[in-house]
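Hi R.,

Quick one: here's the Neutral metalloproteinase sequence you asked about.
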Amino acid sequence: MRSPNPIQCVVPDYVLVDIARRGDEEDREAALSTLAVSTTLRSARSQAEAVRSAMGMPIAAAAGLREPSMNRVIRDARTGVDTGSPIVRKEGDGSIGDAATDEAFDHFGTTWKFFFEVLARNSIDNAGMTLDGVVHFGKKVDNAFWDGDQMLFGDGSGKLFTRLTKSLSVCAHELGHGVIQFDGPLVYQGQSGALNEHIADAFGAMVHQWARDETAAEADWLVGAEILAEGVRGKALRSMKEPGTAFDDPRLGKDRQPAHMKDLVVTAADNGGVHINSGIPNRAFFEIASALGGRSWERAGRILYATLGHEQLRPHADFRQFARLNHRMAGQLFGVGSTEADAVANGWAAVGVEI
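And here's the predicted structure, written out as tokens:
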């Protein structure tokens, strides 16, 4: 049985395969090394979920009522793959002078504050979960991962990707997968998996915008703009505003994301196109937030978050089912026929999803 929450990463496997095919020997070595790490982590994640299922444990295990407080720990794998590596910085500690450690610690803090101050959520599981991160994970690993319990940051090969801790949107995206895991989950396959990736991207973009107090009009709507290495032809890993335009590089390949249902990609790769077809709901969210104006998290984000946590959201929801629930949540929060409800309907219609 497929695990409902396999290992989730910010750089899709198909991009790494393209690098292995197109790049030089050093590119190929880094891409294949990263793919090997992904495969190992997926196996471990599947085993962990199987144990939870066999023991009858809910994914969001009861943690008891706690006074909300941030708790962060950062571990240093020192280019190894031990997820239980020694802690090098914990809550209350000052900067240690290692860029990856301090960036991850700071990004964890910003993301925690966003979920608490904007969405009244007490950490990833809404029960005070410790934010646990591992930096310098693996050798030249061109990716960052959410493994179901903690975040793992590669340092990048330096040729195509830099260290993954540089990007707040990447960190918030991966922690967003944790929120989806506890509130959903949306099965990581096909359109439900693309919705999973979409919501993680939306969290990543909103945290980035919130940290800078940007309006929807001021924001660049990019995810992972900081992780592309110098010389790579591209602006980010993904663009929510213009899916399919994030990069076009001889070694990296071309951004494959569609922005409309007429261009939906049917594929067995990438868990049925979860990183590819997420461009469609990403564009819909951009349209909604832009139509409403102001700050994306104030109305569009609240509607999205309410949709994710609604009891009628099904694990295998497709785009249309999600869009209809999204529209209903807008009506419940702001009124049937409200500007917000109309914006949601129009945003999904703009990408070919009729409510």
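The two ends are 32 Å apart (CA to CA).

Cheers,
M.
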